[in-house]
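Could you help me review a protein record that somebody else here produced? This is what I was given.
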Amino acid sequence: MALERELRPLKAISDNYPKYLIVTAGFSLNLDGIQRLSLTDWLLIADRGLLWAEFATG
């Protein structure tokens, strides 16, 4: 599956930094600690200067 192929390198990194997968289609969700963000949501977060936690809680 393509999603598994995209997530494998991020899962292999064993640090505590947040990891993001930005996609052009779909919606935002959390996949095993990796935040999958739609491009639209990512641009809104960057434009507002928000952190993911602030965006996710509304």
